[in-house]
């Protein structure tokens, strides 16, 4: 599953929770001047909460590397290889 699939399959409630946790709108991804790690982390946290409902946002962010976050969201990997 690639990153568009993971994010596009999130419910509106999940997206709203991620936006509130990050303090940023999902539309921030379109702004190259906005930091994306807080929003990516919040989206990944919401996805992880599906299987770990008691997982706290702060704990997830403090214990997750960028690679961990990207893996949860499906960023990188084989989907991105060979693209120029």
Structure description:
The chain has 84 residues and is mainly α. It has one domain. It has helices spanning 3-8, 12-22, 37-49, 57-63, 66-73. The longest helix has 13 residues, at 37-49. It is globular.
Describe the structure in brief.
By secondary structure, the chain is mostly helical.
How many distinct domains?
1
> Given the helix and strand composition, which structural class is it?
mainly alpha
- Rg from alpha-carbon coordinates: 13 Å
Kindly state the mean pLDDT as a whole number? 86
Helix and strand element order: HHHHH
Tell me the total number of β-strands. 0
Quaternary structure = single chain
Shape: globular
Cα distance, first to last residue? 21 Å
Percent range for β-strand residues: under 5%
List low-pLDDT spans: 79-84
Give the helix tally: 5
**Main pleated sheet:** none
**Relative helix content:** 40-55%
Outline the fold blueprint:
Layout: H1 3-8, H2 12-22, H3 37-49, H4 57-63, H5 66-73
Helix pairs in contact: 2-3, 3-5
Core attributes:
mainly alpha; 54% helix
């Amino acid at each position: 599953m690639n990153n568009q699939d993971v994010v596009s399959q999130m419910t509106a409630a999940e997206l709203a929770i991620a936006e509130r946790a990050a303090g940023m709108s999902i539309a921030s991804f379109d702004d190259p001047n906005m930091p994306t790690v807080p929003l990516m982390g919040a989206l990944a946290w919401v996805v992880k909460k599906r299987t770990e409902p008691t997982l706290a946002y702060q704990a997830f962010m403090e214990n997750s590397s960028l690679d961990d976050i990207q893996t949860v969201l499906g960023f990188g990997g084989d989907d991105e290889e060979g693209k120029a």
